[in-house]
Write a structure and sequence with these properties.
single chain; alpha/beta; six-stranded mixed beta sheet; 45% helix; binds pyridoxal-5'-phosphate
Length: 476
């Protein structure tokens, strides 16, 4: 399997080459040359693999379709090391829970940082360690986080050979639990940098450092952001796991609702559907930052300015543009790299928007690819958390609540099961749960008292030079 760029660059690469890379040389995103097709017999084999051998075997079989430059025995060992009951809380790894007739929650948030990002990041940590050792190389991961990505990356990379993490975050702006989670890590290879500024300042610093090509090469700076193909690929697996749990035979369909920000999670659903997994609809749920809902309703994709990006109570979906969206648009345009480049490279850079409303391909987003969308607000979130708690005794987090709210709007009387992806546990966003329910959510036993642990964090001005100096000092 070879990988190409969404912007038409001629070069083709193998999986392990793009594993450690960010963007393609032309600024595009990597995608496989084609999506391997899963026929009825293969789907039955995957069903059996999950039920009889477990999630790790399912992951191995799906990853094998896309990775041909890691020996099978090694890849299987990496999957087995990653997806254990010990790390993810249950043998099923991603169990389904029934809410009401035909509406299910798929639990993706029982990993080390209690958000679905662990599903991909834990695998990425093991893949990085494996590939860096094989090459005899080192990597210094520089990132910016508003919460979930940074902690998932740190818990995935802690103690790994050959990897250091420098994670910037806006000082005092993450939830209390998120700060405690990240800053209590005492591992030598993990560095927390709390920047006196907002998330955009952190992102600007990361960009400035990455644009200094000499510094980047000298200090082997890399990223683990959501455009990484390996992360997306790891997420494809739980769409299969959700499907085989919700159905008994391969002629049944299911739909998924996905609380969305950067379009990574739901893009993995698009890949699974493109492989032939019987998915009816992919429902994109956004919060007040409705860039994606606007596109799927109108055909207009309009990036927001920082000042038009709302700070909401589902903060991990507070995006101004959706960094993985280009992958889907490339497929929507019939994989036309030149057109994708014109839209994402030129139109967005010049006008901050593009408009496909008059183009016949726009209708395909719903008809051929199953995409629909909806939006949820703070008031919807509170009402949904209350209602779900009152009727089912289940406390859901704010992002998952956005999903449940939008899923209900799209379910109608359909007999097709609707699976909402649970993207975090409520303890991560306790303030809003208190606002909704009048009491805090349950804290999983292993995190009780985490706020009181000693902290390892460096507070710094929003200054590129200071961050660079810190990296230099700690790369010896
Ligand atoms: C990252 C995140 C999202 C958004 O996922 P995308 O892949 O960026 O669309 C939603 N909910 C939570 C809790 C997250 O951490």
């Amino acid at each position: 399997m070879l990988y190409l760029s969404t912007r038409g660059h001629a070069e083709r690469k193998h999986f392990c080459d793009i594993l450690l890379e960010g963007l393609a040389p032309d600024g595009g995103l990597y995608l496989p040359e084609h999506y391997p097709q899963v026929d009825d017999a293969m789907l039955t084999r995957l069903r059996t693999a999950y039920h009889e051998q477990g999630y790790a075997e399912l992951a191995f079989q799906i990853l094998s379709l896309y990775i041909d430059d890691i020996p099978a025995a090694d890849l299987r060992a990496l999957c087995e090391k990653t997806y254990t009951a010990e790390v993810f809380g249950t043998g099923e790894i991603v169990p389904l829970r029934h809410l009401e007739n035909g509406l299910w929650l798929e639990a993706l948030s029982n990993g080390p940082t209690l958000a679905f990002k662990d599903m991909a990041m834990q695998l990425l940590g093991n893949l990085f360690e494996y590939e860096l050792a094989r090459r005899g190389e080192q990597l210094n991961i520089l990132g910016a986080t508003s919460g979930d990505t940074g902690s998932a990356a740190e818990y995935a990379m802690r103690g790994k050979e050959g990897v250091r993490v420098f994670m910037t975050s806006p000082h005092g702006r993450m939830s209390a639990f998120q700060q405690a989670q990240m800053f209590s890590l005492q591992d030598e290879n993990i560095h927390n940098i709390a920047v006196e500024g907002v998330f955009d300042d952190c992102q600007d610093i990361v960009k400035a450092v990455s644009n200094d090509l000499e510094f980047k090469r000298k200090y082997k700076i890399g990223t683990v952001n959501s455009i990484n193909w390996a992360r997306l690929l790891a997420q494809v697996v739980y769409y299969f796991a959700g499907y085989v749990q919700a159905t008994e035979t391969n002629d049944q369909k299911v739909s998924f609702t996905v609380p969305s920000g950067n379009f990574g999670n739901v893009c993995a659903g698009h890949v699974a559907r493109s492989m032939g997994l019987p998915i009816d609809q992919l429902v994109v749920a956004t919060n007040e930052n409705d860039v994606l809902d606007e596109f799927f309703r109108t055909g207009v994709y309009r990036v927001r300015a920082s000042c038009d990006t709302h700070e909401t109570s589902s903060p991990s979906m507070d995006i101004s543009k959706a960094s993985n969206f280009e992958r889907f648009v490339f497929d929507l345009l019939g994989r036309d790299g030149a057109r994708t480049k014109a839209l994402f490279g030129d139109a967005l850079a010049q006008d901050g928007r593009f408009d496909l409303s008059g183009d016949p391909v726009f209708a395909n987003a719903a008809q051929k690819y199953g995409f629909v969308s909806g939006k949820s607000t703070h008031a919807d979130r509170l009402a949904t958390i209350r209602d779900t708690h009152a009727r089912f005794g289940v406390t859901i987090d704010t992002h998952t609540a956005d999903g449940v709210k939008v899923a209900r709007e799209h379910r109608g009387n359909s007999a097709v099961p609707m699976i909402v992806l649970e993207t975090a546990l409520p303890i991560k966003f306790a303030d809003t749960i208190v606002e909704a329910l009048g009491h805090p959510p349950e804290c999983p036993a292993k995190f009780v008292g985490i706020e009181n642990l000693p902290r390892r964090v460096q507070v710094m001005a929003a200054d590129v030079a200071q961050v660079k100096a810190y990296i230099e000092q700690h790369c010896k």
